[in-house]
Amino acid sequence: MFLRNYWYVAASAAEIGRKPFARMILGEPVVFFRIEDGAPVAFEDRCAHRHLPLSMGKLVGDRLQCHYHGLQFDRTGQCVRIPGQELIPPSAKVKTYPVTERHRWVWIWMGDPALADPARITDFHWLDDPAWGAKASYLHVKANWQLVVDNLLDLTHLAFVHESTIGNAALAEHATVKVTRAPNNVVVTRWIIDQPAPPTFVKVGGFTSNVDRWQIIDFVPPAFLRLDVGATPTGTGAPEGKRVDGITMRNLNAITPETEKTSHYFWGQAHDFEPHNAELTEKIFRQIETAFHEDVEVFSAQQRNLDLCPDPPQVDINADTGVIQARRILQRLHDEERAALHVTAAE
Amino acid sequence: MLSGWLRVAVLADLTDADAAPLAVKLGELPIALYRLDGKVYAIDDVCTHEFALLSQGFVEGGAIECPLHQARFDIATGRCLSGPATVDLRTYEVKIDGGEVFVRMPKPK
Lengths: 347, 109
Hints:
The structure holds 2 protein chains of 2 kinds. Chain A is of the alpha+beta class. Helices cover about 25% and strands about 35% of the residues of chain A.
């Protein structure tokens, strides 16, 4: 199940340059490059002539030249040169995708190009806001994208998967959880009051006694999860909105389906304390990266079992509230997209 | 054996504004308190379908929706309005006294 009429993160800005870059998105092969003025461009990664991936070709000025027979395509996807032939058939063109660059990521629109309004790009300003220190990265996931969404909406797993970094038993046993929902949004708010800080928080926040810890998970479809996380010394008023002597971070996640069984996981970690301390940014990033590698192992193991038995019975527990609400939203949006397609087809 | 009226909460912990249910124990029994239009209701907090805590669910139009499988129950009567649950919730008598909420422990059958 894919949702098409959304902006997805396709690559980090640094990945796209003057060398064609191939990446499969929502099951479609796409080639990315920058034209000479620096603007990113995305084509279907398949020559209109004999289907060789255009990513095997090279850039000639603003044109992408196929490696096989040298056909050249301009930034609109139109073939503008066929070696040894003067006339160019109008059908000699490749599909292009709307792309735009924001928050150090290159975003792609996989649906109806007429609806591709950059104003609909999900806000990830923490990644390039000077008031925050941040570092982003990429993980390849051998699992369906919804397993990653599930993971981030139920953070009780931190107590078990990430006990060496961001987790401890208190997270699962002593959290007060509130889930609120809107038509296209789920927010899971978790408070863990007067409990020991997990290892990562001790390392970067220097806590020596119990803390009040929050995890506020903001989900927007299809797969954007922005987490407001942090802790303050217990009893200093964080639950009432007064965050003093503690640490506040944003854990930022944008998942892009590659296929039904593999995903691109773009993520970053931002912190508002000592934002210009690059060493600290790196230290925090490394802690979270360790945890995320542990998650990636979980996802691929889940997917292997799902491959053996695609729709096994499963039990839901109280911690699944956010996960279930998000899955319902995604299913509804998917049904709406399909219904709209049928209406268009019937017209 | 506890019996009669038990103090389970202070009224100030219940707000009309976001209709947030409050999970409390009536003796050993998990129940949830709801304040709707100024009146307080006490009903079972465990979904009759698969043990979800209904107080973690969603209040809409005088009904509580189970957080897991979307069964709905009427808050005032405990009546099951839609599946997958089929069994109603028990309701409990409530009285407010001096800003405190008392719920009557049902007599053992």
